[in-house]
């Protein structure tokens, strides 16, 4: 078997042409089915504005319906924080049913109360993807952390690795699941279900590679934080008005 | 050299094993594995192809132009249709036969506007029991443009 011997010059030249076309396809990163969407032209994140969240639970319900999230599990949830005067290291945090049905009325009190929506931070250097033994979870070229359900063994390694508690094992599919940043929507030019359903604009999908995206102006003019910055996860869920008590 | 035969046999076994490994690998590892990294590139396409449930307000607005106009003048201008009406992609696909249920104003309005110390102070909120007693919100307010300057239609319809 002599491969080089069988390869004529004509055949070789035609092959380099095909390789060039294939390589261009890889470089442009166009997934089939979304012809106008180019992976390399986006870098997705999310802006969460604490000062706008009213704890209505619309985002949690929308996420559950859009993504068929099983009852009792959450790809996004809302936490109610209560900080007693100066005790910012010991906040009282509650999230009844993930905030899916809103929160009980909080009476006026001496402390401070606010809501914090949580979700996958779509970290650029995500701890969860680094531990997967089978290449079932990964950061896409457009900055979204996804799970390949066909490859996931359900070993739970990633569930433990996520410092934000954003992953769970689906009770019947027995694979890891998490927020996909509504990848099936954003690749079609729509916003995420949680952003669509948020009545106050407390959640804003952000394309960090798009110079026209209002996120850039917002980041320039506001004090914005990520959760657990000391872990250097490259988190891309940016919080405005985040209190020091939030973990 | 007369004892070298076993080395060739071993090399042969090794070669067969390597070829078998390469063959099986080509058979079982999907072509798109490694396209972008150490994962199946087609997984991205699979996830992107999932069906949508929330149609998006842009879709609603292509038909419901009157409501868009009414809404754009009021305080609910920034609230997307499906924030109150729920997911409507099925309705958008087949508007004739799939009619969305009318939201229940007695429950819906309070979900956002019930007064609570945890809500930001800029957000309009009322203690519904004191504010209107048993009257539902749409008796006085129009859902799409809630200011009292625009009175509700007779019968409390938004």
Shape call of chain B: elongated
Distance between the termini of chain B: 99 Å
So how many helices of chain A?
8
How many distinct folded domains of chain A? 2
How much helicity do the residues of chain A have? 10-25%
What oligomeric state do these chains adopt? Answer: heterodimer
Please report the first level of CATH classification, the CATH class of the largest domain in chain A: Alpha Beta
> Can you list the strand order of the major beta sheet of chain A?
9-1-11-10
Structural class of chain B, by secondary structure, is mainly alpha
In total, how many domains does the architecture of chain B comprise? 3
Provide a descriptive summary of the structure in words.
The complex is a heterodimer of chains A (247) and B (158). Helix content of chain A is 24%, strand content 19%. Chain A is built from eight helices and eleven strands. Chain A has helices at 3-6, 9-28, 58-67, 127-130, 157-161, 183-186, 193-197, 215-221; strands at residues 44-49, 76-83, 92-94, 112-119, 137-139, 145-147, 168-169, 176-177, 203-207, 224-225, 237-240. In chain A, strand 2 (76-83) and strand 3 (92-94) form a beta hairpin. The relative contact order of chain A is 0.20. Chain B is mostly helical. Chain B folds into three domains: 5-48, no CATH class; 52-101, no CATH class; 102-158, no CATH class. Chain B has helices spanning 5-28, 42-48, 57-63, 65-73, 81-85, 89-93, 105-113, 128-132. The interface between A and B is large, with 58 and 42 residues.
Summary, kept brief:
The complex is a heterodimer of chains A (247) and B (158). Chain A is an alpha+beta fold.
Secondary structure blueprint with pairings:
The complex is a heterodimer of chains A (247) and B (158).
Chain A: H1 3-6, H2 9-28, E1 44-49, H3 58-67, E2 76-83, E3 92-94, E4 112-119, H4 127-130, E5 137-139, E6 145-147, H5 157-161, E7 168-169, E8 176-177, H6 183-186, H7 193-197, E9 203-207, H8 215-221, E10 224-225, E11 237-240
Parallel strand pairs in A: 1-11
Antiparallel strand pairs in A: 1-9, 2-3, 2-4, 5-6, 7-8, 10-11
Chain B: H1 5-28, H2 42-48, H3 57-63, H4 65-73, H5 81-85, H6 89-93, H7 105-113, H8 128-132
């Amino acid at each position: 078997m002599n491969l080089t011997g069988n390869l004529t010059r004509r055949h070789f030249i035609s092959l380099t042409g095909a390789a060039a076309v294939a390589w261009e396809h890889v470089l442009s990163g166009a997934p089939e089915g979304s012809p106008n969407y180019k992976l390399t032209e986006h870098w997705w994140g999310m802006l969460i504005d604490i000062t706008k969240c009213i704890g209505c639970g619309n985002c949690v319900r929308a996420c559950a319906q859009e993504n068929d999230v099983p009852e009792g599990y959450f790809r996004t949830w809302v936490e109610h924080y209560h900080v007693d005067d100066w005790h910012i290291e010991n906040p009282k945090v509650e999230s009844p049913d993930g905030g899916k049905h809103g929160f009980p009325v909080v009476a006026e009190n001496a402390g401070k109360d606010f809501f914090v929506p949580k979700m996958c931070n779509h970290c650029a250097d995500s701890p969860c993807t680094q531990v997967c033994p089978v290449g079932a979870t990964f950061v896409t070229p457009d900055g979204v952390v996804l799970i390949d359900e066909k490859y996931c063994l359900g070993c739970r390694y990633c569930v433990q690795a996520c410092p934000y508690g954003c992953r769970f094992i689906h009770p019947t599919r027995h694979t890891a699941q998490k927020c996909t940043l509504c990848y099936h929507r954003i690749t079609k030019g729509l916003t995420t279900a949680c952003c669509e359903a948020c009545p106050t604009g407390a959640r804003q999908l952000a394309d960090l590679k798009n110079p026209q995206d209002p996120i850039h102006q917002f980041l320039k003019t506001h004090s914005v934080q990520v959760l657990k910055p000391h872990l250097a996860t490259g988190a891309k869920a940016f919080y405005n008005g985040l209190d020091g008590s939030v973990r | 050299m007369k004892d070298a035969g076993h080395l060739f046999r071993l090399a042969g076994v090794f070669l067969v094993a390597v070829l078998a490994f390469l063959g099986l690998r080509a058979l079982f590892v999907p072509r798109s594995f490694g396209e972008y990294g150490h994962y199946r590139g087609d997984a991205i396409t699979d996830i992107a192809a999932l069906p949508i449930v929330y149609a998006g307000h842009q879709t609603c607005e292509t038909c419901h132009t009157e409501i868009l106009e009414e809404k754009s003048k009021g305080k609910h201008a920034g609230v997307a249709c499906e924030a109150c009406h729920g997911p409507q992609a099925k309705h958008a696909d087949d508007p004739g036969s799939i009619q969305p249920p009318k939201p229940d104003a007695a429950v819906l309005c309070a979900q956002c506007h019930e007064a609570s110390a945890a809500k930001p102070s800029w957000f309009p909120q009322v203690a519904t029991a004191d504010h209107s007693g048993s009257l539902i919100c749409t008796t006085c307010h129009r859902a799409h443009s809630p200011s009292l300057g625009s009175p509700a239609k007779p019968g409390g319809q938004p």
